[in-house]
Amino acid sequence: MSLILTVPWMAWSILLPLGGAVATFLSRRYASRLTLLFGMATAVCVGALGWQLALKGPQRHHIGGWQVPVGIDLYADGLAVLMLAVTALVGLLISFYATAYFPKAGQEETGDQNVASSVYFWPLWLFLWGALNALFLSADLFNIYVTLELLGLSAVALSGLSGKAEALSAAMRYLFVSMIGSLSYLLGVALLYNMYGVLDLGLLASEVRPGPTSQAALALITVGLALKTALFPFHFWLPPAHANAPAPVSALLSALVVKASFYLLLRLWLGVFPTVINTTAVDLLGFLGALAIIWGSIQAFRQRRLKLLVAYSTVAQLGYLFLVFPLVLRGGDFTAWGGSAYLAVSHAFAKASIFLASGIIMHVAGHDRIDELAGIGQRLPVTMFALALAGVSLLGLPPSGGFIAKWMLLNAALITGQWWLVAVIILGGLLAAGYVFRMLAHSFTPATWISFEQPVARRMEWSAFALAAVAIALGLVAEPPLTLLQSSTSFAGPGLREMIP
Amino acid sequence: MIEFAMDITLVISLLWLAWLLLAAQDMFKAIILFIIFGLFMALVWARLNAPDVALAEAAIGSGLSGALLLASLRRSGESGAGNEQRAGGLEPGSGITPGSATLNITHRLLTVLIIGLAGTLVWAAWVMPPQHSGLTEQVTARMQRSGVSNPVTAVLLNFRGYDTLLEIGVLLLALICVRSLGALPQFLTLRPPGMVLMAFTRLLVPFMVLVAGYLLWAGAHAPGGAFQGGAVLAAAGVLLLLADIGLLQSCPERLLRALAALGFTVFLLVASMMLQASGQILNYTPARAGAWILLIESAALISIALILVLLFSGGRFEKGRVPAQERDPVQ
Lengths: 501, 331
Prior knowledge:
The structure holds 2 protein chains of 2 kinds. Chain A is mainly alpha-helical.
């Protein structure tokens, strides 16, 4: 018991994946096993951190024993721990899938890109994991920039891992977008440091005053993070980057990476700058979110390739997350931001499952042209079941995590009387129904002869299924995660409730 | 007055160089301008009383980045024709790429975005109230317990050592990224290097190693440190490669990887040890802080230098060429 209370679990949950990244870089032969080992150890730390939180409330860790403003603090509250837990669970299942997806690597470099991708997937993914954990726990504006650099670089390299021309050009564009985003963020941080002389989010929240400099800084930071989150119209880089990556990478990018920059937006807008934001700004973000839902859904429906359809669906689902800003500012409170965070969580599971399932389909069929997938459901019943379950959550049908989240958002829109948002949420659901059924319809068409002969590893199918099952389970047992979320406090101390007028 | 004139000259030269650079049609010319731009930038940092940044800018921003850009230009020049052929051979629509219309929109969007960012920045700088003093006082008050007397090193390795830990990780990650892209076309041709280059390299490299070691040691109390020292050491490595002295190429792959990861590994291990012992990442006791910082910096120096040289040569050292001794005109 005292072990749970005293060990600094949050610090370990950052150091362990980074250590794993080094280990898998050095030892290629055991890379996949080492990833599972370090991954499980990280998951244990995150679990223990959650326990610690339940017993003692939100935690702070003073790095180097220095106090703010000179040192850097880590900070864990309900929201941060929930994101860590999602990362750990999604990450472990994807790692498990990847052990079968990538061929075993030898010690020597052969120049074969398949082998190269299987050698470098593991260290890159563990770097990504470490960066995500560091980002979720960071309470320091500049430190967040460093974590964004780690995150962006590893995500870009992962997305180009297949080595194909399309993948490389998509990765190149992703790199530029990611760098412009980071630069914009950094400029905002420089302005803020120049004005207030602090970098700690808590101190900043108590010192920040409305004014042109603060607004300009927040605008720069927001543009940078919106680029990285692929908010409409900055979504152009996402579909090619996510669709051309190897399946486990697509799943990681769509489930976790884009959520990280959204998480920062949520934290900064609601926790640090609530006094700076105004109705015009939140309405603009909400409006772009609404456009993303409609545009993304229509584009998803029009795609002929499964992976592109799924990638555009990510654009649409990310749009929902941005509805939180107009909803919270007009009094939506926990129903609004809890709903948005819960959508991010359930989308992570559902989308990871769909991308893993698409990977299996591509492996078995040799392509992902939707119209030519008839009969695949007979060949891959578990995969198709996973796809259907995850689709249910994406649609927001009960009982699923997506349902709870969209229900909360809908409620918030009704409470605050924002009817246009009600309309958008309902319309988005209908459009989602369109593309989810399109995704499933052909696959379930029975075929008299089945041409899909490629064998597929069981663990790949079951990983995809497990992720979809969690997305559904989030609708059946919503109480614990929502309670955890509700225990979130802003960095300044008082809950979001008190910060919002 | 003279200082003012100097500053004005610097600012105007910077803007002028930047414009020339962007307007240059010839890529080689643009790179040379970039290198000069970096040197002027280093002067600006020196004028702003930031000698550490000036050193880093001159060594990395101008020197090594310039070398990297030149190497890339050479590579893309040599392999350009082959790439075009391959791209032409692709079936239309065989991959998932957005059409040219999308690309056009993308470019316009990005242009608007960048102009918007620049505008916002200018406006924000215009209306900015008088500067905050930052954290200088708090840092000065804690220098006694930091283990070093150079405030920059104290911030980088102690107060904000966690940032630096992650940044060393970024360096290692950059190497992994470059390697994950597969093999690059060879940069060094089989033409043997000239006698002047070879003789100078033999003369210079030992001194550069010495300077790197000095910069590392000096970092505790004066401008310097692992990054600056690492950059100098990397420059020595680049010279070795250019002069085709096979020292680096003869290093086995496993050892290379271990050395590249050394800095990050040592940093992580120290952080974990402190976490285990005191409950906080990188919590050195004030009495030992100096020694720990020196240990971390020494390991980081090696990795920084090696990674920079590896990035210069495309992630791996090119092998399978004529050993230098067999056609060494000096011996």
